[in-house]
Amino acid sequence: MPLLLLLAIFVLVPATELYLLIEVGSEIGALSTIWLVILTALVGGWMVRHQGLAVMFRVREQLDRGEPPAIEMMEGVLLLLIGVLLLLPGFITDTLGFLLLIPPLRRWLILNWLKRRGNMTAVNVDMQSSKQEHYIIEGEYRRDDTHRQ
Questions:
Q1: Is residue 19 a contact partner of residue 94, using CB atoms and an 8 Å limit?
Q2: The pLDDT of residue 17
Q3: Structural domain contains residue 61
Protein backbone atom coordinates (compact mmCIF):
# COMPACT_ATOMS: atom_id res chain seq x y z
CA MET A 1 0.00 0.00 0.00
CA PRO A 2 2.77 2.56 0.73
CA LEU A 3 4.17 1.99 -2.76
CA LEU A 4 0.85 3.00 -4.32
CA LEU A 5 0.72 6.08 -2.11
CA LEU A 6 4.23 7.11 -3.17
CA LEU A 7 3.31 6.51 -6.80
CA ALA A 8 0.28 8.76 -6.42
CA ILE A 9 2.24 11.50 -4.66
CA PHE A 10 5.24 11.59 -6.97
CA VAL A 11 3.69 10.68 -10.33
CA LEU A 12 -0.08 11.08 -10.49
CA VAL A 13 -0.39 14.38 -8.59
CA PRO A 14 2.30 16.23 -10.61
CA ALA A 15 0.97 14.82 -13.90
CA THR A 16 -2.57 15.93 -13.01
CA GLU A 17 -1.31 19.35 -11.91
CA LEU A 18 0.61 19.76 -15.15
CA TYR A 19 -2.42 18.77 -17.22
CA LEU A 20 -4.63 21.22 -15.33
CA LEU A 21 -2.08 24.03 -15.68
CA ILE A 22 -1.92 23.44 -19.45
CA GLU A 23 -5.72 23.44 -19.73
CA VAL A 24 -6.12 26.62 -17.68
CA GLY A 25 -3.26 28.22 -19.62
CA SER A 26 -4.98 27.46 -22.90
CA GLU A 27 -8.17 29.14 -21.64
CA ILE A 28 -6.84 32.27 -19.91
CA GLY A 29 -3.30 32.46 -21.33
CA ALA A 30 0.08 31.40 -20.08
CA LEU A 31 0.99 34.68 -18.39
CA SER A 32 -2.34 34.89 -16.57
CA THR A 33 -1.91 31.32 -15.37
CA ILE A 34 1.58 32.06 -14.05
CA TRP A 35 0.32 35.16 -12.23
CA LEU A 36 -2.56 33.16 -10.77
CA VAL A 37 -0.16 30.52 -9.45
CA ILE A 38 2.07 33.23 -7.93
CA LEU A 39 -0.94 35.02 -6.42
CA THR A 40 -2.25 31.85 -4.77
CA ALA A 41 1.21 31.16 -3.33
CA LEU A 42 1.47 34.69 -1.88
CA VAL A 43 -2.05 34.76 -0.44
CA GLY A 44 -1.69 31.23 0.89
CA GLY A 45 1.67 32.03 2.47
CA TRP A 46 0.21 35.07 4.21
CA MET A 47 -2.76 33.05 5.49
CA VAL A 48 -0.53 30.22 6.76
CA ARG A 49 1.66 32.75 8.57
CA HIS A 50 -1.36 34.43 10.15
CA GLN A 51 -2.92 31.15 11.30
CA GLY A 52 0.46 29.82 12.43
CA LEU A 53 0.87 32.80 14.74
CA ALA A 54 -2.64 32.25 16.11
CA VAL A 55 -1.81 28.60 16.82
CA MET A 56 1.44 29.64 18.46
CA PHE A 57 -0.43 32.02 20.80
CA ARG A 58 -2.92 29.26 21.69
CA VAL A 59 -0.01 26.93 22.49
CA ARG A 60 1.47 29.57 24.77
CA GLU A 61 -1.87 30.15 26.54
CA GLN A 62 -2.35 26.44 27.15
CA LEU A 63 1.17 26.07 28.48
CA ASP A 64 0.57 29.01 30.83
CA ARG A 65 -2.58 27.27 32.13
CA GLY A 66 -0.62 24.06 32.66
CA GLU A 67 -2.38 22.14 29.87
CA PRO A 68 -0.57 20.09 27.24
CA PRO A 69 -1.06 21.71 23.78
CA ALA A 70 -1.18 18.44 21.83
CA ILE A 71 -3.88 19.36 19.29
CA GLU A 72 -2.35 22.78 18.68
CA MET A 73 1.06 21.21 18.07
CA MET A 74 -0.49 18.91 15.50
CA GLU A 75 -2.18 21.92 13.92
CA GLY A 76 1.23 23.56 13.65
CA VAL A 77 2.64 20.53 11.84
CA LEU A 78 -0.38 20.47 9.54
CA LEU A 79 0.06 24.19 8.83
CA LEU A 80 3.63 23.46 7.76
CA LEU A 81 2.31 20.85 5.32
CA ILE A 82 -0.33 23.33 4.12
CA GLY A 83 2.41 25.89 3.48
CA VAL A 84 4.24 23.38 1.30
CA LEU A 85 1.04 22.57 -0.60
CA LEU A 86 0.39 26.25 -1.26
CA LEU A 87 3.94 26.91 -2.45
CA LEU A 88 3.84 24.05 -4.95
CA PRO A 89 2.66 25.27 -8.35
CA GLY A 90 -0.70 23.84 -9.25
CA PHE A 91 -4.38 24.29 -8.67
CA ILE A 92 -5.14 20.94 -7.01
CA THR A 93 -2.54 21.41 -4.27
CA ASP A 94 -3.66 25.04 -3.84
CA THR A 95 -7.29 23.98 -3.49
CA LEU A 96 -6.38 21.31 -0.95
CA GLY A 97 -4.17 23.79 0.92
CA PHE A 98 -6.87 26.47 1.05
CA LEU A 99 -9.44 23.93 2.25
CA LEU A 100 -7.12 22.87 5.06
CA LEU A 101 -6.75 26.51 6.10
CA ILE A 102 -10.32 26.37 7.43
CA PRO A 103 -9.67 25.91 11.19
CA PRO A 104 -12.77 23.79 12.03
CA LEU A 105 -12.06 21.43 9.13
CA ARG A 106 -8.41 21.16 10.12
CA ARG A 107 -9.27 20.41 13.77
CA TRP A 108 -11.94 17.89 12.70
CA LEU A 109 -9.40 16.06 10.51
CA ILE A 110 -6.86 15.96 13.34
CA LEU A 111 -9.39 14.67 15.87
CA ASN A 112 -10.69 12.01 13.48
CA TRP A 113 -7.15 10.90 12.68
CA LEU A 114 -6.37 10.58 16.40
CA LYS A 115 -9.58 8.65 17.05
CA ARG A 116 -8.89 6.24 14.19
CA ARG A 117 -5.41 5.55 15.49
CA GLY A 118 -6.72 5.02 19.00
CA ASN A 119 -4.61 7.84 20.43
CA MET A 120 -7.51 9.81 21.91
CA THR A 121 -7.82 9.09 25.61
CA ALA A 122 -8.76 11.29 28.50
CA VAL A 123 -5.68 12.01 30.57
CA ASN A 124 -5.44 14.32 33.56
CA VAL A 125 -1.99 15.88 33.42
CA ASP A 126 -1.11 18.17 36.29
CA MET A 127 1.76 20.34 35.12
CA GLN A 128 1.27 22.66 38.10
CA SER A 129 2.86 20.10 40.45
CA SER A 130 6.17 20.40 38.63
CA LYS A 131 6.34 24.13 39.32
CA GLN A 132 8.20 25.55 42.28
CA GLU A 133 6.12 25.24 45.47
CA HIS A 134 7.66 28.07 47.49
CA TYR A 135 7.83 31.75 46.71
CA ILE A 136 10.74 34.11 47.21
CA ILE A 137 9.80 37.59 48.34
CA GLU A 138 12.61 40.11 48.29
CA GLY A 139 12.69 42.90 50.84
CA GLU A 140 14.24 44.22 54.00
CA TYR A 141 13.40 43.05 57.50
CA ARG A 142 14.23 43.92 61.05
CA ARG A 143 14.17 41.46 63.90
CA ASP A 144 12.41 42.74 67.00
CA ASP A 145 12.98 40.48 70.06
CA THR A 146 11.39 42.86 72.59
CA HIS A 147 7.96 41.18 72.39
CA ARG A 148 9.23 37.71 73.34
CA GLN A 149 9.89 38.47 77.06
A1: no
A2: 94
A3: yes
